[in-house]
Every structure is written in C-alpha cells, then in structure tokens.
Amino acid sequence: MSSVAQKKGFGATLWDWMTTVDHKKIGILYLAGGGFFFVLGGIEAMIIRLQLLRPNSDIVSAGLFNEIITMHGTTMIFLAAMPILFGFMNAIMPLQIGARDVAFPFINSLGFWMFFFGGLFLNISWLVGQIPDAGWTSYASLSLVSEGHGIDFYAIGLQIAGGGTLMAGINFLVTIINMRAPGMTYMRMPLFTWTTFVASAMILFAFPPLTVGLFLLTFDRMFGGNFFDHTMGGNTIIWEHIFWIFGHPEVYILILPAFGIFSEIFPIFSRKRLFGYPAMVFATVLIGFLGFMVWAHHMFTVGLGPTANAIFAVATMAIAVPTGVKIFDWLLTIWGGSIKVTTPMLYALGFIPSFVMGGVTGVMQGAAPLDYQLHDSYFIVAHFHYVIVGGVVLGILAATHLWWPKMFGTMLSETLGKVTFWFFFIGFHMTFLIQHWLGFWGMPRRVWTYMDGQGWNTANFISSIGALLMAIGVIVLVINIIITTVKNVRVGNDPWGDGRTLEWAISSPPVHYNFAQTPLVRGLDTYWIEKSEGNESGITPAEPIQDIHMPNGSIIPFFMTLGMFIAGFGAMYRVETSWGLSALIFGLVLTFVSMAVRSLQDDLGYYVKKDEILRDLKRKGGRK
Amino acid sequence: MDLNKKFTPETWPDHPERATLEAKNKFVGFWLFLGGETVLFATLFATYLALKNKGPSGFGFSTQELYQLPLVFVMTMLLLTSSLTSVYAMYHLKNYNFKKMQLWLGITALLGLAFLMLEVYEFVHYVGEGFTFDNSAFSSAFYTLVGTHGFHVAIGLVWITLLIFRNSKRGLNLYNGTKFYTFSLYWHFIDVVWVFIFTVVYLMGVIG
C-alpha cells in the first residue's frame, strides 16, 4: 500500500478498485457508476421525447413506453442522482472536516457494491425482457397485476440498492459526528458537510419504510402475501403511504446536497463568506424536519378528507419559508462580491431562477384544491423536473466542474464547460417550461401518445427539441472529460485560486491518508483564514508528524453483495425453474458466510510509517 | 491497537465500549442503526394495525379467538429476563470479568433460544388452525411483524454465539469489548420491540 505510483497490470488495478476502502476511490466509483446509469436514464428520456415528438406516433409500443418511463424515473432517482451525490460526499466531505477516512471504510465499500449490484439487477430486466412498468412509484393496484418478473426486478433491485444507501447514510453521520478535526465545531462545518449530515439523517429515517414497503410488495407478488389485495382484506393505499413516507424525504435527500454544493460555489466565486451561515444551517435542518411532514401532498386526490389535506397543504407551503431563506442568503452572498463567472458559478447562477420556478409551482400544488386540477397532468411533470433537473442535476454538473480537479488532479476545460452549460440550460427550460402549459391544456402525464388537433403538437415538438439540446450538452461534457483525461495537465492544491475550505489546502488528488498532520481548524472557511494570514502551508497542524492508522482493503463487500444478487435471482425464479431454489440458498449462504468471516477475522488496519509521510511531503509537497 | 495488551480491572477503562475512535464509531453508528430499525418496526406496526382482523369475505379469524395470552406471557418473561441477564453480562464487561460475562451472555442466549422456540411453536400452532401466511391480509401482517421480530432474535442468537466462541480463548480487549457491548444494545432493542408487540398485538388484540 505505497502511495508511490507504480505501473500495475490490469488485473492488479481491477483488484485494487474492487477491494478499496479509500473514501476518495469509492467516491470515484460512485461517480462512475452513477454516471453510467445517468447516461442510461438519459437515453430512456430521449426515447420518451422522441415518441412524443409528434401526435399518433408509434415509435415504441404503449407497453414499452410504460416500461421506459418507469425505468427512466427509477434509474434517475435511485441509480443516477443519489449515487453521484454520494460520490461527491465520499470524495469531499471527509476532506472538508479534516478526516483521514470515513468512520466505516468497510461499510462504505459495501454500500457502493450494493448500489451497483442493485442497479445491475434492476437493469438486467431489459435483457430478460420483463421490465417494471408500474411507474417509479409502483402503486400497488398496478404493480400487483403486472405480469412477468418486471416488478420483481424493481422490488429486489431497489431492496439491494436501498440497503447500500442506508449504510452510506449511517456512515456519513458517524463520520461527521466523530471524526471532525480539532476546532471543527458543528457551526464551523462547511455547508456541503452540513447538508450531507442532514441528508444522511433523512436517509436513516426514510429508507427503512422503503425497505418495508418493498418487502411487502415482494411478499404479495411472490410469496402469497395479501397486504395490498383488497379481495383478501388488504389495502392498496398502504403502499401509497409507505412509498411517500419514503418518497417525499427522498427528494430532500437529493436537493439538500445540491444546496450544499451551491453554498460552496457562491462564496468561492464571489470571494466573500457565505451570507447568513447560521440561518443557512437552521434552514437546512428545518427543511430536513419538515420533509417528513408532507408526504400526503402526493395523495391529495386519494380522498383522505379535507382535514388531512388541509394539514398537509399547510405543512407543504411552510417548507417554502426555509427554502426562501436560503435563496436570499445566496443572493446576498453574491451581492457586492468580486464575482468570477466560472463554469460552476454559471451553474449556480442558473440554478437560482430555475429552482425558484420549481419551488413556486410546488407551492401551487401544495394548495390542495388547485392540486385536484393539476394532478396527473403535465404540470406535475414540469414541476418535478424543474426541482430535480433545475436543482439537483445543475448541482451535480456544477460539482463535477468544481471538484473534478480535487478528485482527479486535472482541470476540466472551462470553454467546453460553458458550452455544456448553455446547451443544457437552454435545453432544460425549452423542454420543461412549455410542459406547464401542456398541463393546463389538459395533457395527462404518462400517456403513450396523443391525438392530433388538441393543440398539443407544437408544445410537444418544442419540448422534444429542448431534450435534444440537453443531450448535446451532456455529450460535450463527456468529450470534455475525455480530452481532459488524455491531456492530463496536473493542477495544484487550490486550482480555482479562491478555495475556502480544507479540501483546497491539500494536494489534488490528496495522498491516500489525506492529511500528513491533522489540521487545527480556526474558524469558518479555515483555509481562507490561513491564506489571508499568509500561512504558506495552508494548514495549522494539530499534531506532530507521526504514524497514521489506516484501514485495510477487503474483497468481502464484493462477495457479500454478489450473494444478495444471486439470491435475488433465485428468489425470483424459484418456482418456475429447477435452479431457482438452489441459487437462492447459495446466494444467502455466500452473504452470511462473508458476514461471518468479516465478524470472526480481526481487521485492525495498518500504520503508514512516519518515514513514508516525510518522503511524500518532500516529493510532492503534500503539505503545501 | 494491540490485541495482546493485558488489562487488570484497575487499568480497564470505565467505558471500554467507546475507548478508541473505532469503538466510538461503532457505538454511535449502532445507535443510529437502531434509530433506523425503530422506523422499520414502526412501519410494520402501522401496517399491522391497518390490516388487523381484515380478510376475505367470510373470514373466520379474529385476534380475540386466535391469541393465547398464557403462552405469550411466558415468552415475554423469557425475553425480559434475557435482557436482565445481558445487563449482568455488561456489568462484568465493565469490571473486566471475562468469565462471568461469558456465563451471563450464555444464559442470555439460552433464554433467547427458548423464546424463539416458543414463537416457532406458536406459529406452527396457528398454521395448524388454518391461519397461514397467505390466508388473509391480517395473517400476512401478523406473520410479517412478529416474524421480523423473531428473525431479529435469531440473528442476535447467531451473532452472540459467534462472539462467545470466537473470543472464548483470548479474553477481553478493547477490540472485542465494543462487539459485546453493541450486541447488548441490540438485544435490549429487540426486547423493547417485543414489549410493543406484546402490548399492541396481543394485549390490545385480546382485551382491547
């Protein structure tokens, strides 16, 4: 485990990535895995828009269209947006708090593999030809009657991936609670760390209901359960409640880290500390809390009654208050700053109006009587794409440009970055702005096609062209990444020149133990403080140079997850095939034996010796 | 961390379960995990309450006729006592008395095993009466809630058995001290869940 770069064969490199417990490498794995599924979900989106380009189109059949919209939603939420955000949390958050790794490196690796195998499991449904088709919400009245194994792929795949998410959430929480550097009090934590903290707490309380819901669905479909079947005394509304008790917090789990990313970008490129830091923290926590109180606003038209609807309507609108606080804090951070319009800053500037529009339509839907009109129309599609794309995806793209140098040691091209931004930004508004009106004009969501002469043709045409522009933007980003990687121009610690938080004080990418000496944190934006006081090293050390304890890599997480993956197939095919039951048993045994091995083996980690640290410092000035 | 470091009751830290950073991480992480587990069981409880006594038309089972309180009372006593014995084990953990800790953990496991066997007996009995998992929404919800708890007990038994045998030869150290401690947290948690099951499922089912 030397930090000296050596030429390694393909097998050794692969083994290294499969066994790594280094949070920076796992961050890159998450980014790669999430990026892959993002492209997959994007292709699905393009097919949707192609089908809706013209009326009476039959490029895809009605059944296939249902499958594509289901997979598009599920993939984008569970397998693209969340893992990519986890990638940044993994790669950056420990650096921001001055930690050398996360609290549970082994579980971190396990969480990644569960996400990845869960995603593979879900998408293998394409190869089998039995694809989930009940929407990403998979309402039980639809999902129970869906034929084939499509919904089973959904339930088991998300079960595996969701378990990984829960582990990642606990891991981030404990990391932030226990592993902050000396002086890094809660109220000195960078906003991205804060939002990671709150989003992780939300994961902890939102994902268990999803686990239960998916188990109940699996039981109903595969093991003779009757939870949602009204002929057997079941109740299909229970699924809707359980799903949205998870599902609503989920959207805040996605947007809060994006808020955190923008809260890093505005101060850096306005060269001014974040306006209203305590208000920002309070607003984040408040949004996290209120996020659990509003799930039934997805169910206004179910018929829960005026009292329930009124309570949830008021709670929903209340969330606009802390969100508004954030918007004003960002604006006042820019106000009077010395602004540099870099690619990340462009995304941040574009984010504010886009997200505000999504927020305003959200409050409109929060008014329960109006929601009866808007429900299941294209207005809803427009709304949630404005918050998810206008908020989360812009945040992800901004973070990609902002932290690329820290994660990979090279700088993405600013020119191509701006090209990506304009294509994506214009395309995004073109696609989704017009959909608000499509909703008003009566076009229902999730329809496979529409008749000519209803006044929807032009709007749908504009929308589809916008989607094409977004796709061009993403392709330019991919080209940018390839060019940057091939050129391989290395950058210094603080490539943007105005970094404020600890991650910019160390080399890009950091050595595997991150900090040669644990830093002493002297205030909010501690690196900025050191720089402004003329400290060349950028860090005030809190300890002498000494041996550093690091965790061992392990292949066990891979096999543990492989076991679940195999068991999932076994459970699904246990009735109609001869191998199903044996696969189920084999998979479970593999998982439990891996767990037992992990439990019985003493894994105490190892020490990076003082000499090696000194050598690293001399060689590349790891402290500079 | 040095596994061979020898302690005496005097040098053994007051809180061995969080004496090192790794231990502290496990300690906090496990508490958070139990928070997630609480939500998981809460969801199952809510589902059960919504589906209690619900079945297809002409459904013949109700909580009043089905549940037998004497059996459930014995199960409750066994599990509550096992919680007490695990506290004794933790007392000896803190006082660096490995032998007695192992003894009380062994008793805890035996009580847990007795509980689990009675639960299996209960389920077999119900199935014998025709109250099968696929019989109705009520039966699905009942077996899922109580069965998930039983599954947790089973996992706990495997866990503590592995711990007892794995460490039988080498005594206590700061590495395995946390493992024993988190087990006891887990054991208390499933005990608390059972108290709720006893109240919400059985007492409210028969009396309420």
From TrEMBL, chain A:
Any GO MF annotation of the entry: metal ion binding
This protein's GO CC annotations: plasma membrane
Annotated compartments: Cell membrane
Enzymatic reactions: 4 Fe(II)-[cytochrome c] + O2 + 8 H(+)(in) = 4 Fe(III)-[cytochrome c] + 2 H2O + 4 H(+)(out)
Topology versus the membrane: Multi-pass membrane protein
Signal peptide span: none
Enzyme Commission number(s): 7.1.1.9
Residue ranges crossing the lipid bilayer per the database entry: 28-48, 68-89, 110-131, 151-179, 191-217, 237-262, 274-296, 308-332, 344-364, 384-404, 416-438, 458-483, 555-573, 579-600
Keyword check for Metal-binding: yes
Top-level class of the enzyme under EC nomenclature: translocase
Pathway involvement of the protein, from the record: Energy metabolism; oxidative phosphorylation
Key words of the record: Cell membrane, Copper, Electron transport, Heme, Iron, Membrane, Metal-binding, Respiratory chain, Translocase, Transmembrane, Transmembrane helix, Transport
UniProt KW Iron keyword: yes
Domain Cytochrome oxidase subunit I profile residue range list: 9-522
GO BP term (any one): aerobic respiration
Family, similarity comment: Belongs to the heme-copper respiratory oxidase family.
Record's protein name: Cytochrome c oxidase subunit 1
From TrEMBL, chain B:
GO molecular function, one term: cytochrome-c oxidase activity
Annotated GO biological process: aerobic electron transport chain
Bilayer topology term: Multi-pass membrane protein
Keywords per UniProt: Cell membrane, Membrane, Transmembrane, Transmembrane helix
UniProt-listed Gene3D superfamilies: Cytochrome c oxidase, subunit III, four-helix bundle (1.20.120.80)
GO cellular component term of the entry, any: plasma membrane
Domain Heme-copper oxidase subunit III family profile: residue ranges: 1-206
Similarity comment text for this entry: Belongs to the cytochrome c oxidase subunit 3 family.
Designated name of the protein: Cytochrome c oxidase subunit 3
Organism whose genome encodes this protein: Sporosarcina limicola
Organismal lineage: Bacteria, Bacillati, Bacillota, Bacilli, Bacillales
